[in-house]
User: What shape does this take?
Amino acid sequence: MEDEEIDYRKDIVDDQERHYSKEFYKYWFSYQGRGGFLSLNPWLETNKISIDIGSSKDTDGRTQLEGNTKLWANTLDLYAYLTAVTNGTAPTLFPTNERARIQYPESYTYYGGGKMEGKVVSRVLKIHYWEDKNGDPDPTAFTWKAGHFEGTESSTGAIQPNMQKSLSTNKIKIPRLEMTKMQQRLAFTLQAFATSTMVDNKNWWDWKTKA
Assistant: This one.
């Protein structure tokens, strides 16, 4: 999450074989030949949630994918945020922060990155109030934005984005009610994962690879 100091993390999923469980949440819409989707898949062994946002269009009676942007967020960070939005504590726990460039309360930002096709890429997830055609915030819905940008790897391994050089971006409008549904589905997924790992005599909080 972003606070006064930006945490540019290097995602641990790079250069590893990726095994996801079936998506625990998917939202999609279609309106006048245009559409979009948000899909969340758990990879709880590594404390990660895969987030895929894409757009589509209808052509000659067929729906075709226009493009999508996929990235990852830490499971517990995202769960804490969705839970705060659901129980009404997000304005306090996730307040505006001018220094961290957080314009609205109840916002969430996650920076990650790694290598794609041999190039350093920064991945940025931003969630904040939807803005109407006049640019005014609408607290009844949230914008989910996923972006890939050219990145620079520091000596510590952090990936810093060049926000002027976008490689891929997608966004979608998510109603507040859907945020609650998302939180509930993630809660059920975590409960099931905890149960299954404890049956195998493992501690569910011991990730195989630390984030």
